Amino acid sequence: MTTKSHAKPARQVLITALTAGSLAAIGASAIDKSELPTTDKSHIAIPITASAHVTPNALYTAPDAPPIIVADWIVAPTTRGSALTPREMFVAQTIPRQSYVTHTRRSAAPMASPTHRRTKHAPAAFTTPAADIGQSLVGFFISNGDEPGENAGLLIGNGAAGGIGQDGGRGGLLFGNGGQGGDGQPGQAGGNGGNAGLFGNGGAGGAGGASYKTGNSFSVGGTGGTGGDGGLLGGAGGAGGTGGAGFTESGAAYGGWGGAGGGTGLFGKTGDGGKGGSGIASTGTGYGGKGGTGADSSWTGQAGKGGVGGDAGGDGGARAGDGGDGGDGQGFGRAGAGGTGGQAISQASAVGGNGGNGGNATVLGAGGSGGNGGHGVANAGTGAGGYGGHGGRGGLVSRGGFGGNGGSGESNSGQANGGSGGDGGRGGPGGPGGAGGLGNGGLSKSGNGVGGDGGVGGDGGFGATGGAGGKGGTGASTTGKSYGGNGGDGGAGGTGGQGGTGGTGGGGTTSNGSNGNNG
């Protein structure tokens, strides 16, 4: 009977021990010893992936052995005549196979030196992760957003434009522009513009989506997105997005409102308000959207202007959108002007939009001017122009804003009313009042034509004169009556100041408008 030999397990133990010893001897070329775990010298467990796992001990010595392939690279065992000591052992760490460089398996011939093995057969895992981490760190701090709405790197880069109805990405905290907001789907609001960091421009707001309806139904366009804020130390605020148009066959159609302008930091210009959307109805009534509000100024820059009102049209009537208000001037910043009212046209009555009001100044600078009224043009109904917006209040030793002019009114067979001018703004201490806006004309072929009244002049500040009243508009008609608009009164002077001159009345064939009173 043949006795079963125990040489095979012993050989496995020797292979395992020799592998650990060889790797320990040459491990400096491929293993960072600082990453090796601390082990107890009294017992060393070596989790090497092999056919058997044993704990080597000092009873076994390391005789000659052929080269062994471990993890796809060659280990040439060194002939020793002594036992392996615990300090030559190590706990092998598991490394994923895909992290190694793929190469053709070579013959198991001994290597010339550890340096030769390190340069030609070193695993890629010891070099590639460092490069990847470096690239990731750079991208984390310095990069542009590339996906829709993606933010820039933390410090430097531009934000990406938003997708459909999505906000734009943020710019870098140090340098970079915010991304533009995405345009909305039908009836959906546009995305907001992304903000900048210290230096950069805010992204513009996205446009609201247009809405199309058939039959007897109402339609509402989407609101424009808000502009992003400019940089704290430099950069402009983004403009508000345009409101979406509303279209319908026989119902009411409403244009979306324009988006508000974006702010900024200490020095830049802030964003203007977006234009209101148009409201168009084939046989119904159309309503234009209101223009967006301009953003308040930085402490030294220009405030945003109000957005233009949306236009309107429809056989059943049309009412255009009002202009947006201008932003206030903060600190030493300049106030923004109001937006112009939208235009209206209809077979029935048509009314132009009113101008937006000018912004107020807080410390220095003139008040913002009011926006002009929009025109109203009708066929059989009344055509009326919109009113001018009011001027804003002035700062120290600064005048008030001018009133906006009224819009014209026209009609074929109905009455035509010209829009009245807006009132001038009050002057700051030591500043004159703003002049009132002009009334516009009313022109009709067979109906009556009535001119709009002039705006009232603003009061002067301490020791300053009042603003002049605006002139009245002219009334005109081919076969009907016509009346001139009244002139606006002059503003009162401040303490020790002179009052403003009243405006002249407008002319009319039936009667002229009266002159305004002096302040």
UniProtKB/TrEMBL annotation:
Species, as recorded: uncultured Mycobacterium sp
Record keywords: Signal
Residues spanning the signal sequence: 1-24
Spans annotated as Disordered: 289-343, 398-519
Keyword Lyase carried by entry: no
Protein name: PE-PGRS family protein
Composition-biased stretches (Gly residues): 303-342, 398-409, 416-475, 482-519
Annotated Pfam families: PGRS
Superkingdom of source: Bacteria
